[in-house]
Amino acid sequence: MAAASDTPVTIGVPRETAPGERRVALTPETARKLATAGARIRIERGAGLAAGFTDEAYAETGAEPVADIAQALEAADIVLCVQPPAPAQLSRMRQGAVLIGVLAPEAEPERAEAIRSRGLIAFPLERLPRTTRAQAMDVLSSQAGMAGYKAMLVAAGLAPRFFPMLTTAAGTIRPSKVLVIGAGVAGLQAIATARRLGAQVEGFDVRPETREQIGSLGARFLDLGVTAAGEGGYARALTDEERAEQQRRLAEHLKGVDVVVTTAAVPGRAAPRIITRAMVEGMKPGSVVVDLAAESGGNCEATRPGETVETGGVTVAGPLDLASSGAVHASEMYARNLFNFTRLLLVDGALAFDWEDELLAKTVWPEPPVSPREAAAAASPVT
What is the average pLDDT score of the chain? Predict the structure, then answer.
């Protein structure tokens, strides 16, 4: 473990510039906690306004709202962000500074080069190990929860029918039949939201162990007669025959479904294609598909990222950055995730790195420095 300086750590927070992004990486709550831990905080003026946090609220915590964020970044030991700063902004950061956020460094060569050329110690939190200890820092899970909730609200808004069963003077209205594909954090939140809205809900996932999780939310597990259960709790790849049978049964089932929300995504890779255009065409007019995986290519073949289209009377929506549409609570959760991770780097008010901590060593990009233990082992003579 090595401390970088005995002076107070300076944290810089720029305003997010990605189109439509409303979240902020620091809230007044976490600003106060970081200030209590001995950090000096500079945040760009107006950075939290879209998420409901005023400059005055930050100033009350001891943080300093600044107009010239470029100058603040040049002096910052740590920079917190939601989405990665532009390469030009990265190039203004202090040599060897720490960058924490959802960074996807390998997705853009210019961004990767800017991080390397400035010697930045980048912590892309999408690389964080999925362990019990890391749950309080897991930005993917916290933001997926908001995205799943919002996806079901989008679906309810697009559907030309009620979700709950209603008994009216004009007769009884049957509940909508909703299918959620993918039972990760986003999918489970979507299921829970559809249940709260009163729909008749089913959930599907290739992992058979999700049956219990889906059932615990009051939904029915959709069994397509094919299991991907493998060894050690991991899903195995389906054979071509199994995949074809699964697709045939899903296509048949979709004919009776009113709303489908798909949530199957793998960080850093293209989303798996689950619903073909032929399946969409086989659905009844008035049905709705909301594809939460639109940002990574979509689970539905008819999805157009960022658009809502109609094909054969079926509405297909591919919303982007849904977590940002719930900016207040999404920012609160995200900022707490970042605070919990940043605390690993603050020891007695100074910046320090314990490279024997797997949360740091496995998250840092491009690679962690050699830990003291490894250095000592390498220096020991071979006997």
Answer: 91
Q: Active site residue: 6, 95, 234, 348, which one? A: 234
Angstrom distance (rounded) from CA 16 to CA 5 = 28
Structure tokens at 147: 């995205």
pTM over 0.85: yes
Half-sphere CA count of 38, side-chain side, radius 13 A? 14
Token pair, residue 258, equals 């009113």
CATH of the domain spanning 144-325: 3.40.50.720
Decide if 102 contacts 84 (C-beta within 8 A): yes
Is residue 309 within 8 Å of 159, Cβ to Cβ?
no
Topology (CATH) of 2-137+327-371: Rossmann fold (3.40.50)
pLDDT in tens, 330-372: 999 999 999 999 999 999 889 999 999 999 999 999 887 655 4
Report d(CA 98, CA 114) in Å as an integer.
13
The answer to whether 71 is a known catalytic residue is no
Q: Which residues contact 241 (CB under 8 A, 6 or more apart)?
A: none
Q: Which of 138, 205, 258, 321 is catalytic?
A: 138
Query: Using an 8 Å Cβ cutoff, are 101 and 80 in contact?
Result: yes
Instruction: Report how far residue 325's alpha carbon sits from residue 20's, in angstroms, rounded to the nearest whole number.
Output: 9
The pair of structure tokens assigned to 322 is 């849904």
Intervals of CATH 3.40.50.720 along the chain: 2-137+327-371, 144-325
Whether 258 is catalytic:
no
Catalytic status, residue 130 = yes
> What residues contact 331, with CB distance under 8 A and at least 6 apart?
23, 24, 25, 27, 48, 51, 53
